[in-house]
Design brief:
The complex is a heterodimer.
Chain A lengths: L1 H30 L1 H34 L10 H34 L15 H30 L7 E8 L2 E6 L35 E3 L3 E4 L4 E7 L4 E5 L4 E5 L5 E5 L5 H8 L6 E5 L11 E7 L1 H10 L3 H5 L1 H5 L8 H17 L1
Helix pairs in contact in A: 1-2, 2-3, 3-4
Chain B lengths: L1 H25 L6 H6 L4 H31 L6 H7 L10 H37 L7 H20 L30 H30 L12 H32 L10 E2 L4 E2 L7 H35 L6 H15 L14 H13 L1 H15 L8 H23 L2 H7 L3 H31 L5 H27 L19 H31 L66
Antiparallel strand pairs in B: 1-2
The chains are: A alpha+beta, B mainly alpha.
Chain lengths: 355, 610
């Protein structure tokens, strides 16, 4: 009902505006075209100036209103660089914005039609044109210089001591994998994926390195102050690992792994204090259109102290064990003979695969 | 010797051709309704066909945005009327996710291609190229007609995709595979996607037929004395636009054909290592690259934004100069900067792909080349500003929209400097900042340029004026509304709010903008209503507008205003006028304006070395 009412009001407004517009045309005929033109010109000239003044106030006001809502301090070292770059760019473009907009509307107002004013025949001036080729070129050189300096710092190789975590996107969620004690990811092949058997990444059990890999959908655990390198994969369509608080982002492309690295600066607990929000979590947003659940494809990052991280990791069952529950029911295998059990298990898997 | 004979023969042929034209002119009444209004080969009628089809598309595309803004602004409310109209797509009065994505996808496709490419270039290239160059029609009027009808068929196919059971394409206007390649990954990637691809292929054909025609007309059919450097900037802009289109649309088509193969022929150009949760099956495709598609797409996709904005730069330059009663400042710099933009347009496509895993070293070159575009853009802005300086400005609706265009082009252009810088793009990529940027710089700006063109040349098109009061209302609400809608989105983008989310309630990081989203949606509806007012003004004025009584109502120098008020097919009665000077002799030697057709008089100050 209210929708119909709104449409009716709009329609009515439409008719009223149209009638006024039609009447104004008759009035202008009565008043004489020249007089109407001059009047309209004055009104519009004034409005252009008013628009500029109110617009600039509006820009300031909008900034006051929203600057508190844009995430606050970056939570990674790379994020800090990106924020610095942002401020440099805002400063330079801000000056240009204000000057050019003021000139545009001021000229429009100042040089509006006046009876008898002669426009100045001024077709070109090489000196001026060189000036406003060179100045933007210099400003942009500065921006490119800073930009690429930070770009190469951010996209350069991750430090050797970095933790490595694999993150894989799927419709519509994230899968995290940790390499386990051996610090090596086991091989995987997408045709091995079997969600019924809890092998959601298609790990190859023939590869012993996969046996201690931890796979979880719960959250990505990172150590505060320690660089982390993400290996980013997708299982189906293109996704994107968006980490707004860390200011990081990288596509997840099926068949083509990508990487990015950064160092988290604050633990989740510290962020809870900093933001004053007891429910604060670092969120992973999918930033590349991936289907109908795109808007809900959320992941969580938990940044913790090193000790807490080790504790958490120790509690995780390797995917191998979860995927092969028959191994778990057996009594714990003595430490001296893990190689044997691996061989048998691998042989078993190989056998079942060939079926 | 024989060559000379040939030459003479050719001249003879041309003369008879022209005579024939003039004869044809006398037999106007023989045109039937079909040859005059439907399968017309008159460039002016084809321009109107493009314009009106484009306007219908703009209403549809705009309506889509109103619908998805309803969801964004009022995510917790239901609109039962939507279910009555849209059925299962708005079950329970709420827009369903699949449909939301279909809406955004079609909004983008329709406005980028069908409105701001075909509707804009199609209208003004067809209308102005022969009129401003002094030609009786396009190089090939028949191809020109085909160009429109291919566009029309493309439109029909695209419209029909709205009515299939699984819905239209819904993978975003860029239709990245694998999402767009796999029907099992998304409903919109079923038959809707095939229709989308077929429509776009037809569209490319239309665009190529048109573009080749524009280029050959501009190169070959200029009237006597109309050297390239005497052409109005509109023509230069349309020339570069056509070249961009002819060189880049085929690449897009090739990308689409590979996508069709992947969809139906079992190839793996874009597909690799895919396991679909919906079917619990691994696909056989291995070795393809999803990124390859993005390269092919953006090789058109980036020039495409210049295909949209260049023609409006030309239109605005001419409208602004005529209404400032001053020559455009720095004509050659304007041409040069458009040329630079056209060349750079081909060298920057990968700045859409900084976060796809592109080699960072390669990315560095794209940063450099991208930011380089800011230089010719800055030259253009400063030249427009100087054109206004010490002019005698008439705020006709066309002039107001031109001023609005420059304002928006500055605002949107500057944010391009943020996004072109790969360091910042890491954070801003695919956020609302991008939406704000491209809507201001190529969406709204291009519309402003187009409106400037429509208001300025409507009297030439229909022999009547648009209603001024409605035009002023249209301008002011659109300008203010455009800034109110898109300016605050920069802040959402800085906060990292991702694009293409229909509901932020599940997100602690992004849910702080509910009030703003509602505000933007309300403004969107108002601005959309005002566009309808414009459409109404347009249609009403075709039939009932104030009649144009003088041949040259704006006091402009260019050739289109030397034709009769309602020119017939062939444009000029009698001889085609000869050109003696550039298009911008406003305010020279104390005279208000000197038409291009007036010979240089001996006591005139020398023609400027523009």
């Amino acid at each position: 009902m209210s929708t119909l009412l709104i449409i009716a009001i709009l329609l009515l407004g439409f008719i009223v505006v149209f009638q006024i517009a039609k009447a104004s045309e008759y009035v202008s005929v009565l008043k004489g075209e020249k007089k109407t033109f001059e009047q309209n010109n004055k009104i519009n000239g004034f409005l252009l100036l008013a628009f500029m003044i109110l617009g600039l106030i509006g820009v300031y006001w909008c900034n006051e209103l929203y600057k508190g809502k844009i995430l606050g301090e970056a939570a990674s070292d790379h994020g800090e660089k990106i924020d610095t770059m942002l401020y440099i760019t805002i400063a330079i473009t801000g000056v240009v914005f204000i000057i050019t907009q003021i000139l545009l509307f001021w000229f429009s107002f100042k040089y509006q039609y006046k009876e008898g004013r002669k426009a100045f025949y001024y077709p070109h001036n090489n000196k001026l044109e060189v000036i406003w080729t060179v100045i933007p070129a210099i400003a942009l050189t500065v921006l490119v210089g800073f930009g690429l300096y930070y770009w190469f710092k951010i996209t350069g190789d991750a430090p050797k001591e970095a933790n490595v975590v694999e993150i894989t996107g799927k419709q519509f969620g994230w899968i995290y994998r940790y390499p386990g004690k051996d610090k090596v990811f086991g091989k995987k092949y997408y045709k091995n994926i079997d969600e019924g058997k809890l092998n959601q990444l298609g790990l190859i059990w023939d590869d012993k390195a996969s046996h201690d890999d931890v796979v979880t959908n719960e959250a990505m655990y990172l150590v505060v102050g320690k660089p982390v390198k993400l290996i980013i994969n997708s299982r189906d369509v293109v996704h994107d690992v968006g980490l707004a608080h860390f200011r990081m982002k990288m596509d997840a492309v099926p068949g083509t792994p990508t990487t990015m690295w950064f160092t988290p600066k604050y633990t989740t607990a510290q962020m809870k204090e900093k933001t004053g929000n007891p429910d604060f979590e670092y969120e992973i947003s999918c930033d590349q259109m991936c289907g109908k659940g795109h808007y809900s494809m959320k992941g969580i990052v938990k940044v913790v102290e090193p000790a807490e991280y080790l504790l958490w990791l120790a509690k995780q069952k390797p995917n191998y064990v979860m995927s092969n529950p028959e191994l778990e029911s057996k009594p714990a295998v003595p430490v001296a003979t893990p190689a044997d059990s691996t061989v048998t298990a691998a042989a078993k898997i190989a056998g079942s695969n060939s079926n | 010797m024989s060559q000379e004979v040939n030459l003479h023969e050719q001249v003879g042929e041309m003369t008879t051709h022209e005579v024939h034209h003039d004869e044809h002119h006398g037999h106007h009444h023989k045109e039937t309704f079909i040859t005059k209004y439907v399968f017309s080969q008159d460039h002016k009628m084809i321009a109107k066909q493009f314009l009106i089809t484009g306007m219908i598309w703009a209403i549809i595309g705009g309506l889509f945005s109103v619908l998805f803004r309803l969801q964004l602004g009022f995510p917790n409310e239901t609109f039962p009327i939507l279910e009555d109209i849209l059925g299962k797509w708005a079950a329970g009065g709420k827009i369903q996710p699949e449909f939301y994505y279909a809406l955004t996808t079609m909004h983008g496709t329709v406005l980028v291609f069908f409105v701001l490419t075909a509707g804009l270039s199609g209208t003004f290239a067809n209308f102005l190229i022969p009129l401003q160059l002094g030609a009786r029609d396009m190089a090939s009027p028949f191809m020109n007609m085909l160009s429109y009808w291919f566009f029309f068929i493309a439109s029909i196919v695209m419209i029909s995709s709205l009515f299939v059971q699984t819905g239209p394409a819904s993978g975003g206007w860029t239709v990245y595979p694998p999402l767009s390649a796999l029907g099992d990954a998304s409903e919109g990637s079923k038959i809707g996607m095939d229709l989308w691809l077929i429509a776009m292929a037809l569209f490319v054909v239309s665009s190529l037929l048109g573009g080749l025609n524009y280029i050959s007309t501009i190169l070959n059919m200029r009237t006597k004395g109309m050297s390239m450097t005497r052409m109005p900037l509109t023509i230069w802009a349309l020339f570069f636009t056509a070249v961009l289109g002819v060189l880049s649309f085929p690449v897009l088509l090739s990308g689409f054909i590979l996508l069709l193969f992947d969809r139906h022929a079992g190839t793996s150009f874009y597909l690799s290592d895919i396991f679909l949760a919906s079917t619990q099956k691994a696909l056989p495709n291995e070795g393809g690259s999803a990124i390859l598609y993005q390269h092919l797409f953006w090789f058109l996709g980036h020039p495409e934004v210049y295909i949209i904005i260049l023609p409006t730069m030309g239109l605005v330059s001419d409208v602004m100069s005529a209404n400032s009663r001053k020559p455009i400042f720095g004509y050659m710099a304007m041409v040069g900067s458009m040329f630079a933009i056209a060349v750079l347009a081909f060298l920057v496509w990968a700045h859409h792909m900084f976060v796809t895993g592109l080699n960072p070293f390669l990315g560095a070159f794209f940063v450099l080349l991208t930011l380089l575009i800011a230089v010719p853009s800055a030259i253009k802005v400063f030249n427009w500003l100087t054109t206004l300086w010490r002019g005698n400005l008439r705020f006709t609706p066309g002039m107001l929209f031109s001023i609005g265009f420059v304002s928006l082009f500055i605002s949107g252009g500057l944010t391009g400097i943020f996004l072109g810088n790969s360091t910042l793009d890491i954070h801003l990529h695919d956020t609302y900042f991008v939406i704000a940027h491209f809507h201001i710089v190529m969406g709204v700006s291009a519309f402003f340029g187009m409106f400037a063109g429509i208001y300025h040349w409507f009297p030439k098109m229909y022999g009547r004026y648009l209603n001024n009061t409605l035009a002023y209302i249209h301008f002011w609400i659109t300008l203010v509304g455009a800034y109110l809608i898109f300016w605050p989105m920069h802040y959402q983008g800085l906060a990292g709010v991702p694009r293409r989310y229909l509901d932020f309630s599940g997100w602690a990081s992004f849910n702080q903008f509910d009030g703003l989203n509602r505000f933007i949606s309300i403004v969107t509806i108002m601005v959309f209503a005002v566009q309808l007012l414009f459409v109404f003004n347009f249609i009403y004025s075709i039939f009932k507008g104030r009649r144009v009584t003088s041949q040259n109502p704006w006091g402009a120098t260019t050739l289109e205003w030397t034709t009769p008020i309602n020119p017939g097919h062939g444009n000029w009665e009698g001889e085609i006028p000869e050109v003696h000077r550039w298009a911008y002799d406003y305010g020279k030697d104390g005279r208000d304006f000197v038409p291009q057709t007036e010979p240089i008089s001996p006591n005139e100050s020398p023609e400027s070395k523009h």
